[in-house]
Specification:
Elements: H1 3-16, E1 19-31, E2 46-61, E3 64-75, E4 85-97, E5 101-111, H2 143-146, E6 147-159, E7 162-173, H3 177-182, E8 190-193, E9 197-206, E10 211-226, E11 229-245, E12 249-264, E13 270-284, E14 289-299, H4 308-312, E15 322-335, E16 338-348, E17 367-378
Antiparallel strand pairs: 1-2, 1-17, 2-3, 3-4, 4-5, 5-6, 6-7, 7-9, 8-10, 9-10, 10-11, 11-12, 12-13, 13-14, 14-15, 15-16, 16-17
Length: 379
């Protein structure tokens, strides 16, 4: 065999590993009060919730994987928000891989191992509902927890009872405009990473796949400049995740403690520990139909659960500091590449309501209802 023939054969083998996939989701959001992802409380609702993604992967060598995804996402706001961006892009090198053990490293933009759903949250087919539990998977400040630019490591070890998986990463977090609007009251601010942020997750899955447990933790620090006034922002969440699966049903629960602080010469400083949790039941009615019921709870400050101290300080209504959400929904998948979903939310409080859709928190309603309909395609 000549060198040319060997090289050509290697190139053909590499091309055979190439994969290209994509997805599209379009939703209609209707609310009776308050706005979510656009002007949902007026007219026929808001169609400003769109997700469009294209991902590709290639394995040039057995132990090297190149993978990337470009995402166009609009969730209210301006049409320019749908500009395609790099969702993730990594070079994945496996140091060792066997039946009992896997060890690897990733470099580039990696999705943060955060809870059970964060790494796949942007594809409707991998979510149990149209909206993930907002107490854990904030859409209003999604950029800070979504991905980071840096280096990640992962390890998988078979044990007698199942499989242990560890993931960790060090890198620079994403800092989108959602942080300025939601965390810093729309104040003009320059946001940059104060140093490398760290995230880690330890997950156990039983041999049968019936039981899953995970513990996730992160330490994110940002430098904020309010027109020449420097401040430090920190975010340290801990998340405990548990899931039990049977053939026809699953129960999932996650609990989080979220410390956030803003110190320095900011217009307003704070230091609070929030609490979040949800309990979710999924029922697979038929191979095509599934049903979900969930209770989701959030408080922004465990020392002020009712928000009364917050309101007495003149910062906003007390109900902007908590949210209790009862959700029920159905998903129908007539084919593997098509899904139709509908879900209803009854919410008490506005703790996770996006500021960009509701500029004046005093005008928001404490009790509100939301209906979502979504069409999703993939290839």
């Amino acid at each position: 065999m000549t060198a040319f023939t060997a090289t050509k054969g290697l190139a053909n083998d590499t091309l055979q590993t190439a994969q290209l996939h994509g997805f599209l989701s379009q939703a209609l959001v209707v609310t009776d009060d308050n706005d979510f992802f656009g002007p949902s409380s007026t007219g026929a609702g808001s169609a400003e919730y769109t997700e469009l993604g294209l991902n590709a992967s290639l394995r040039p060598y057995p132990n090297v994987l190149l993978a990337a995804q470009v995402l166009s996402r609009r969730a209210g706001g301006e049409g320019s928000d749908a500009k395609p961006t790099l969702d993730y892009g990594v070079v994945d090198y496996q140091l060792t891989s066997s039946h009992d053990r896997t060890l690897g490293v990733q470099a580039g933009r990696f999705k943060n191992p955060f809870g059970l759903y964060n790494q796949t949250r942007d594809m409707a087919f991998t979510r149990p509902s149209i909206l993930l539990p907002q107490s854990i998977y904030f859409d209003r400040t999604r950029s800070i927890g979504l991905a980071a630019d840096g280096i990640g490591v992962y390890a998988e070890q078979r044990v007698p009872a199942g499989t242990l998986r560890f993931r960790s990463g060090v890198g620079q977090p994403q800092t989108g405009s959602d942080l300025e609007e939601q965390l810093f009251w729309g104040a003009q601010a320059s946001i940059s990473a104060a140093g490398p942020s760290v995230i880690a997750q330890l997950l156990f899955e039983s041999d049968s796949g019936k039981f899953v447990a995970a513990l996730s933790a992160a330490d994110v620090n940002l430098d904020i400049d309010f027109s020449g006034q420097p401040a430090d922002f920190g975010f340290q969440p801990w998340i405990l995740s548990l899931q039990y699966n049977e053939d026809l049903w699953s129960v999932t629960g996650e609990y989080a403690l979220r410390n956030q602080y803003l110190h320095g010469s900011a217009p307003r400083t704070f230091d609070a520990t929030g609490e979040s949790w949800y309990l979710q039941y999924e029922r697979r009615l038929t191979p095509e139909w599934s049903w979900l019921l969930r209770y989701d709870s959030l408080v922004n400050d465990r020392q002020d659960r009712s928000g009364r101290q917050y309101e007495r300080s003149g910062l906003g209504p007390r109900y902007s500091q908590f949210a209790d959400d009862i959700t029920t929904g159905v998903q129908w998948m007539p084919t593997a590449n098509l899904m139709l979903a509908a879900e209803y939310h009854y919410i008490d409080g506005t703790g996770w309501l996006p500021t960009r859709d509701n500029a004046n928190p005093w005008e928001a309603s404490k009790h509100w209802n939301m209906l979502l309909l979504q069409l999703s395609l993939r290839f």
